[in-house]
């Protein structure tokens, strides 16, 4: 009887330890979101039907002992110390607010570059007579800048050519093009974190093409079936890779 009780106590103790939170976070594939549902262009609100640009993300959650032990069961899952995820003295809520601010900044950069690439006149501040706006999303941070720029460019070009909501006759194969990358004001595509997890999110969304910063190519350690991973240095390269 005592032996059976001892086994039960060991089991209860092990189960309790399994759920103990740690000072680490799990970083996993997150959302893949159609940028066409987020970018709003007056006069061209309907996304182009034969092509979709998806921004990708990672999901981070505080890890328990059990989750760390089982990390290998989930593809694309990484472990990172809380101290490496959040700047010193910054909590989760403050960090999330800063990421939302950086996303808004990345949207502004994406619009300015898209307007320039599409041949729209702008003033000295980069403003235009076409006010591109954005819907809210759960995704935060600056790494969606590249995909915002591609979606905005496609919509602005369609508006200019009078084909909003119509398929592009020169469109190449496939429909979903996903990607990640911080856009600098010069149009350079800068490195991001969590590239492999984002690639998994893109593959799950059915992407045939995944655009990444060239500096992140060494972070891809596996293949993704029929989804091609393409490194790009700047927005011009990304536009060519996307078939423009």
Which properties best describe this structure?
Ribosomal Protein S5, domain 2; 22% strand; alpha/beta; six-stranded mixed β-sheet; 244 residues; 7 helices; two-stranded antiparallel sheet; globular; 10 strands
Could you characterize what this model shows?
It is a single chain. The protein has one domain: Ribosomal Protein S5, domain 2. The longest helix is centred in the middle third of the chain and has 26 residues. It has a six-stranded mixed sheet with strand order 4-1-3-6-9-10. A two-stranded antiparallel sheet has the order 2-5. A two-stranded antiparallel ribbon has the order 7-8. The model has no long low-confidence stretch (mean pLDDT 82). The protein has 244 residues and is α/β, with parallel strands linked by helices. It is built from seven helices and ten strands. A hairpin with a 5-residue loop joins strand 7 and strand 8. The radius of gyration is 21 Å and the shape is globular. 35% of the residues lie in helices and 22% in strands. Helix 4 runs parallel beside helix 5.
